[in-house]
Specification:
By secondary structure, the protein is an all-alpha fold. It is 61% helix and 1% strand. The relative contact order is 0.14.
């Protein structure tokens, strides 16, 4: 029997730049152009973090904060730190990892693993959490994992929409800051290749020295090439190992409608229904009302299946060549960067050419398709543990 995670008396803690505190209202403002979707998103988010469920509210926010931090989304991390404290969480948990209850600490390694790829999770991880001291009940595990993947998906949205990014009307200041960002990024840029047996490929000192002399365009070119050279979804052969996902899912074998929804409903019926409604609402969105519905449908499906392809979820009945027909190169690069949890600094410099009218629309699709993909891996592992 797992030990309960008790509520801790609230203590105050100060953060730098509190005047720029990232709030849920700021996040929700990105959905303003889509009121129907905004309503269902808000209800789902609220139910997940404060509705029925075995975990205390403060613990849910701490798990959310854990997921955001692992995903590298600073704005959401700070938002969840504030929520954690407001719901009675102890500031010492944020200051010293040793003050965090061991039960919650047991979840951290799995959270980090899932940030790399939710395809890594399997029934053994679930079984391990249910055993030993400070064990978890299966209902607690399901709730915690749904919170983690919810915030993994959500982390793509502030990146894609650049919500809460500082702005200025001084173009010369903007240009100077952009060049500073490029210089810093080019000097520190490093992407690990999970499939590379030699580990992460790093830029050597000679390359860094040469890169410092690049013009802005050349630096952008170099960074973009490194980010997008990762083999994440080969549209010409999406069924091969080039997907970079060792435990891929075929929708024909395991999908949300037939298996995922059923498994989640066993533990968490309210959230299962809300997530289902949210997925359906996202699939009906349109960037402009004057576009033909069939064109919107083709575009939405292309974005959705492209994102799921990146996360190793394959649709055998879909012609992946349609992605190239529906999405231009800028949009595909934008989606890849969001899915890789790249920093807002990189996106701000690289992808300003993506139209603002499409930015929020595409970001919602990316967020929901990613959430559904990661959720399928989680629920598949839970189902196998139960069998």
């Amino acid at each position: 029997m797992g030990h309960a995670i008790k509520h801790i008396k609230k203590r105050n803690i100060k953060f730098e730049n509190e005047e720029k505190e990232f709030t849920f209202d700021a996040l929700k403002s990105g959905f303003d152009r889509f009121p129907s979707y905004c309503d269902i998103f808000q209800e789902t988010h609220s139910t997940l973090l404060s509705g029925n469920g075995p975990l205390p509210e403060a613990s849910r926010h701490f798990i959310a904060r854990m997921a955001c931090k692992a995903a590298g989304c600073d704005s959401l991390t700070k938002m969840e730190e504030q929520c954690f404290l407001k719901t009675g969480g102890s500031a010492t948990w944020l200051e010293d990892i040793n003050c965090v209850p061991s039960k919650l600490r047991r979840l951290e390694s799995l959270c980090v693993l899932m940030t790399k790829s939710s395809s890594f999770i399997n029934y053994k991880h679930i079984k391990k959490l249910t055993e030993g001291e400070d064990s978890w009940t299966l209902a607690e595990i399901v709730q915690a994992l749904v919170i983690i993947v919810h915030f993994h998906g959500l982390s793509s949205f502030p990146i894609g929409t650049k919500i809460n990014q500082p702005t200025t009307n001084d173009n010369s200041v903007n240009q100077a800051k952009s060049k500073q960002k490029l210089r810093k990024i080019s000097e520190n840029f490093d992407f690990s290749d999970d499939n590379n047996t030699d580990g992460a490929t790093k830029l050597n000192e000679k390359e860094l020295k040469r890169k410092r002399s690049f013009s802005e365009g050349e630096v952008l070119n170099k960074i973009t090439k490194q980010v997008l050279s990762k083999s994440i979804c080969d549209l010409n052969d999406h069924e091969t190992k080039s997907l970079g996902v060792s435990n891929s899912i075929r929708i024909q074998d395991y999908c949300w409608d037939d298996q995922g929804f059923s498994v989640l409903s066993t533990f968490y019926s309210d959230i299962a229904v809300l997530l289902d409604d949210k997925f359906r609402a996202a699939r009906k969105l349109s960037p402009k009302n004057d576009q033909p519905d069939n064109e919107n449908e083709k575009f939405r499906t292309a974005v959705w299946n492209f994102v799921q392809c990146i996360f190793g979820v394959q649709h055998d009945d879909y012609n992946y060549k349609e992605i190239n027909e529906a999405l231009d190169d800028n949009l595909k690069d934008f989606i890849k960067l969001c899915c890789n949890n790249c920093s807002t600094s990189i996106n701000e410099v690289l992808l300003d050419e993506v139209k603002n009218t499409k930015r929020a629309f595409v970001s919602i699709l990316v967020m929901e398709a990613r959430l559904q993909s990661e959720l399928l891996y989680v629920l598949k592992a839970v189902m196998k543990h139960m069998s």
